[in-house]
């Protein structure tokens, strides 16, 4: 009989936990990363609340995974995998990049129930697939057919250099470079933190420092309600940058198997996503505009897609 295992999807803001066993995934719970000093403590807190004991765990986490030592990119947690395993008394602890787990999930997700198509034609069988998603940061991964099935390929595509495509974005980048960063990556302008950067940059660029400091969720809410023109411009810019970066990924991979949009932000935008500048920016590749047109794009709305990819990892 299959034993119950702990699975977790750890972002820079939220730590999502569940138990995976013979009856599927159960007892999903979201904890705040800032409430715990480290991964082990958050795992212990979940197990205590769930009233469960496990011998094996699989954890998807935001950042590059290599070797025993791991440090999160956008959160101060840093730990030894062996130490966490020993602290929880586990016989097995698998750690992987969070977007590797998402990539593993994609072949098992169901259209309609877990995602919907928002662009392009039908996918080509065995063609490359790209996954990209803005949450607190920006995650990227891919799936490549190896002759027998799809193989997940994790990466750090959220940190590629993003282009300025207008005088407005060029001026905004200049402000960000002068006041905050030495490099403008896609994540700096296409994520929860990126949305805050865009809002603050527009305030600074237009001499509107008197506007209040806002968090990403507040900026999105005020943009969607029409209450704040600066918030609306920031959100429009973020969707444009998402389209550019997703289009670059599609073009690089030849992703006729599809581009899947994940992350905590897009699924909460409702019909705004469908009327945003994402689609124009995605396809705006000059002579290769027609090449981009049939590439399918899907928006994932499954609440815990990484859990689907983690179930086979332990």
Cα Rg? 20 Å
Largest sheet: 6 strands, mixed
Strand content: 15-25%
CATH topology label of the largest domain: Hexokinase, domain 1
The number of domains is: 2
What is the C-level CATH assignment of the largest domain? Alpha Beta
Mean of pLDDT: 96
Structural classification: alpha/beta
With helices defined by DSSP (H or I, 4 residues minimum), what is the helix count?
12
Number of strands: 13
**What would you say the CATH architecture of the largest domain is?**
3-Layer(aba) Sandwich
Q: Within the largest sheet, what's the order of strands?
A: 8-13-12-9-10-11
Order of helices and strands: EEEHEEEHEHEEEEHHHHHEHHHEH
What report would you give on this structure?
The protein has helices spanning 39-50, 81-87, 98-105, 167-179, 186-189, 192-205, 216-225, 229-253, 272-275, 278-283, 289-292, 305-310, and strands at residues 5-10, 14-21, 24-32, 56-61, 69-71, 78-80, 92-97, 115-119, 129-134, 138-145, 150-154, 258-261, 297-300. It is an alpha/beta fold. It has two domains: 5-102 and 305-310, ATPase, nucleotide binding domain (Nucleotidyltransferase, domain 5), CATH 3.30.420.40; 121-295, 3-Layer(aba) Sandwich (Hexokinase, domain 1), CATH 3.40.367.20. β1 and β2 form a beta hairpin. The longest helix has 25 residues, at 229-253.
Structural topology:
Blueprint (H helix, E strand, L loop, with lengths): L4 E6 L3 E8 L2 E9 L6 H12 L5 E6 L7 E3 L6 E3 H7 L4 E6 H8 L9 E5 L9 E6 L3 E8 L4 E5 L12 H13 L6 H4 L2 H14 L10 H10 L3 H25 L4 E4 L10 H4 L2 H6 L5 H4 L4 E4 L4 H6 L4
Parallel strand pairs: 1-4, 4-7, 9-12, 12-13
Antiparallel strand pairs: 1-2, 2-3, 5-6, 8-13, 9-10, 10-11
Helix pairs in contact: 4-6, 6-7, 6-8, 7-8
